[in-house]
Design goal:
It is built from 7 helices and 10 strands. The chain is an alpha/beta fold and about 260 residues long. The strands form 2 sheets. A 6-stranded mixed beta sheet has the order 6-7-8-3-9-10, with helices on both faces. Helix 3 packs across helix 4 and helix 6 crosses helix 7.
Length: about 260
């Protein structure tokens, strides 16, 4: 795939940190393409630079070498095309649920009536129809995560950048939120770069899973997920193809110690 066919193109990326007079190479020779509408997950050992990669793509960190481009344009500053979802839901505590969700629409200058209508629609999509007037402190962790997802969908980015967004949730809630997100994403069909430690989660969500090496992080292996869509987020894990892929990815991760 050439860069012109990619929504996101990363070429020969290198990231270095200076800490206490010592230089650490976090990422080196990273090359990655994400097609328009493709869901790509990145897995790897702790400290391999997964989150650092996301910071470069989000424009929050400048690389020491190489390039990251969206639609052929090199990233400089936070691109308008990206929407970010992190472990912390980052909701504004003084705003109600519906006001948190409609915030991106307000920033875009959408008329208030349309803001409210779209925010209500998105709350329905994430199963929070009756919680529009609640404040974040009144919600469970899983509910707050749904609000954060609804707000990101309201922004309607071209690329979703997600850094272990379901990591802080308990196992049952994580499955429920993951299933809900997958159903919505399959309707929207935008590009996603998804960081996770969970191999099963990566396979269940993705079109492709990328494995990174230990620091300095490089792309060690890539796996196409040949499981039909739409797919059930939990039940797909019992498919023999899923099991085989899980073993292959785990073997690559295990080599990294």
């Amino acid at each position: 795939m050439n860069d012109n066919e990619s929504k996101l193109a990363i070429r020969d990326l290198k990231v270095e940190y200076d800490a206490k007079g010592r230089r650490t190479v976090a990422l080196e020779q990273v090359n990655l393409n994400v097609k328009d509408g493709e869901f790509v997950s990145v897995v790897g050992p702790s400290g391999c630079g997964k989150s650092t990669l996301l910071k470069v793509v989000s424009g929050l960190l400048r690389p020491a070498g190489g390039t990251a481009s969206i639609d052929g344009k090199e990233i400089a500053g936070v691109p308008d095309q990206v929407g970010m979802v992190f472990q912390n839901d980052a909701l504004l505590p003084w705003k109600t649920v519906i006001d948190n969700v409609r915030l991106p629409l307000e920033i875009k200058g959408v008329p208030r009536k349309e803001q409210l209508h779209e925010a209500q629609r998105l709350l329905g999509m994430v199963g929070l129809e009756g919680f529009a007037s609640y404040y974040p402190k009144q919600l469970s962790g899983g509910m707050r995560k749904r609000v954060a997802l609804a707000r990101t969908f309201a922004y309607d980015p071209e690329i979703y950048l997600m850094d272990e967004p379901f990591g802080p949730l308990d196992a049952q809630t994580r499955v429920k939120i993951g299933e809900q997100f997958l159903k919505i994403w399959e309707q929207v069909g935008k590009s996603v770069l998804f960081i996770t430690h969970d191999i099963e989660e990566a396979i269940a969500l993705s079109d492709r899973v990328v494995v990174m090496s230990a620091r300095p992080g490089r792309i060690k292996a890539e796996f196409n997920v040949r499981l039909e869509r739409p797919r059930p987020f939990y039940d797909i894990r019992f498919d023999p193809l899923f099991k085989d892929l899980q073993k292959e990815i785990w073997a690559q991760m295990a080599d990294e110690g």
